[in-house]
Amino acid sequence: MEIQNIIRVFGGRTVVDDVSLKVMPGQVTCLLGPSGCGKSTTLRVIAGVDMQDSGNIFIDGNLVCDTVFRVPPERRSVGLMFQDFALFPHLSVAENVAFGLSGSRAEKRRRVEQLLERVDLLGHIDDYPHQLSGGEQQRVALVRALAPRPKIMLMDEPFSGLDNRLRDEIRDDTLSVLKEEGAAVLLVTHEPDEAMRMADEIALMRHGKIAQQGAPYNIYNAPVDRAAAAFFSDINVIRGKVKNLLTETAFGQFLTPAMPDGSEVDIIIRPQHIRIDFDRNGRGPNPTPETGVAARAVVERARFMGSESLVEFRMDYDGTMLKVTVPAVFLPRPGTAMWLMIRRDRCFVFPAPGHERAA
Ligand SMILES: Nc1ncnc2c1ncn2[C@@H]1O[C@H](COP(=O)(O)OP(=O)(O)OP(=O)(O)O)[C@@H](O)[C@H]1O
């Protein structure tokens, strides 16, 4: 499935702003972004329940919609699964799953049984939706959408109505069924964890535009800007001023060659990429090429979070705060002096807000 330069305007406001995207068979692409950024609208346009103001949509190499020509939703070979999955209450599970199927009775029955068996619901084949739990209804909705073997599956926050533990299980199950069926999947979510868990490819959306697209690993490890970095985890921001192509910080100098003298830069580091060392009578560890210079800081607060500890430090250098996570129980007393080192290969350097043009 490919969409090219999709634009959708509501009442003078451009909600989807020149979005292009490709989703390949057998791949899950997550459209990830904060509430209101235009994800659902993009999905609705692809499904054909809404129409773009400009741009083209292709499925399997064929144009299904531009601003003149339009294939109706039911002929786009698209399966839909939305948060309010709305099974037909007056139809049995078997009838729900068979709803969009064509072919002989026996063929339909075979497909229905095969899918229900795949999601462990064959025993509920003659039940009605109200007799099923939320998770079971969700699985019926999934196989109902997949039954006619759509080329594209469009899923809008399909797991958000489920409680946490059930959600993880259903996500994993759904993912393996989707992979077996081989459809191209576009899944909308506002949860970074869900995207990291499900996606082969993430398209990060913001203010109607795709801010960045790539494999989860790349998006996480090479964010395009500060907001993209901050979307996936807490971040620390170390601000500095460029002088002679270098920026001086508590952790030593950083090369910032793309930035003009006098402009401000933000050096971003995630809390798990800061190392902690002990104070040795006022001295810290020696500098290394990997971490640069260590900087002294004082513990302000320490909390155990379950799988890790979060320690907040106040830097001697300039009084700013840094957050550090440690994958263990580590609860130093407030006021304890320690030394911090940052993994330089995990730092991202961006122009500070207001200094973007200078870069
Ligand atoms: N039919 C419509 N008429 C007018 N405005 C609309 C319409 N549909 C959506 N919008 C507006 O477009 C913006 C984007 O909505 P959309 O549902 O695409 O966002 P989203 O990223 O999916 O958010 P969420 O995760 O909250 O669903 C919102 O501000 C919404 O109010």
TrEMBL record:
GO MF assignments: ABC-type ferric iron transporter activity; ATP binding; ATP hydrolysis activity
CC annotations in GO: ATP-binding cassette (ABC) transporter complex
Pfam families per the UniProt record, alphabetical: ABC_tran, TOBE_2
Keywords: ATP-binding, Cell membrane, Ion transport, Iron, Iron transport, Membrane, Nucleotide-binding, Transport
Keyword Iron: yes
Keyword Iron: yes
GO biological process: one example: quaternary ammonium group transport
SUPFAM superfamilies reported for this sequence: MOP-like (SSF50331), P-loop containing nucleoside triphosphate hydrolases (SSF52540)
Boundaries of every ABC transporter domain copy: 1-232
Name by which UniProt lists this protein: ATP-binding cassette domain-containing protein
Gene source species: Rhodovulum strictum
